[in-house]
Amino acid sequence: MNAAGLAPTRASTPTALRSARLRDLVAAEWIKFWSLRSTPLVVLGLTAWYGYRGWQGAHDTYRRYLAFSPAQRTGFTDSGLFGSGVEWLPIMVAAGALGALIVVSEHASGLIRTTFTAVPDRLRVVAAKVAVLTAVMSGLGVAVTAEVYAFDRAVLAGHRLSFAPSDPGVPALFVSTVVLMPLCALVGMAFGTLIRNVAASMVAVCVFFLMVPQLFKSPTTRWAIDVGNALPCYAWARLGFLGHGKVVGGETFTGALAAFVLWPLVSAAVVAVVLNRRDV
């Protein structure tokens, strides 16, 4: 109570206290995210799998190199799993599924109603969810990228086949691969927010990351080429494949970068608008 006997207003609430409340929201969302039984299993499973695939992929590359003619060996460098888009589709789907579950699981259990009753400012809750999801999936991206490259270097550097971090295009390769994880997770979160059903959300994530890219793999019209280039997998490919060649058709580095920036921003905006306006 203040001197006039009135309760303190929001405007008089100390900034430190408001920040503490935001930290509390982030902490609560962190606990809820890791309380999902699928979260640690998926994160640890993907980390272990891509470590193994990085090691195996490097050995496969060296075996292919031994079968090359002397002319083919000239100037050959390896990009390992980074050069294989198919290898990264499972982790894109898994990231999207985790992003969907962070919202859908709360709708299924009714916890979302309790959360919004306790915290009427829904946008703050959304901000905390997005922050937690982005942090976790960025960490996964760093771990997977680092271990794949570490195995690639360990196996191939002695044969002078592996690229170095300072080589042209490699920083963009590393950064785009790390960013790919939270990007896919936020897209999945948008699907979960719109659909609000576990099974349907998982189907939507799989269709978007696995089937839709196949529809635009060899487009013949301008609009189809533009749509294909804007998809996360093809935008990542253009940014990550060391700048070699085209992916769908005529894609520029700038266009791929724009797609990479817009996907998470638009997805987070969809989550914020829908959760803030829709009844739960």
Relevant terms:
280 residues; mainly alpha; globular
Count of runs of 4 or more consecutive helical residues: 11
Shape: globular
Distance between the termini: 34 Å
What average pLDDT do the residues reach?
Answer: 83
Main beta sheet strand tally, sense and closure: none
Number of domains: 1
Helix content: over 70%
Give the amount of beta strand, in percent. under 5%
Q: How many strands appear in the DSSP assignment?
A: 0
Give the ordered list of helices and strands: HHHHHHHHHHH
Alpha-carbon Rg, integer: 22 Å
Stretches with pLDDT under 50, minimum 5 residues: none
Summarize the structure.
The protein has 280 residues and is an all-alpha fold. The protein has helices at 15-35, 38-66, 70-73, 85-109, 111-118, 122-156, 170-195, 198-215, 222-230, 232-240, 253-277. The protein has one domain (12-277).
Question: Could you explain the architecture of this structure?
Answer:
The structure is a single chain. The protein is mainly α. It has one domain (12-277). The chain contains eleven helices and no strands. The chain has helices at residues 15-35, 38-66, 70-73, 85-109, 111-118, 122-156, 170-195, 198-215, 222-230, 232-240, 253-277. The mean pLDDT is 83.
Per-chain topology:
Elements: H1 15-35, H2 38-66, H3 70-73, H4 85-109, H5 111-118, H6 122-156, H7 170-195, H8 198-215, H9 222-230, H10 232-240, H11 253-277
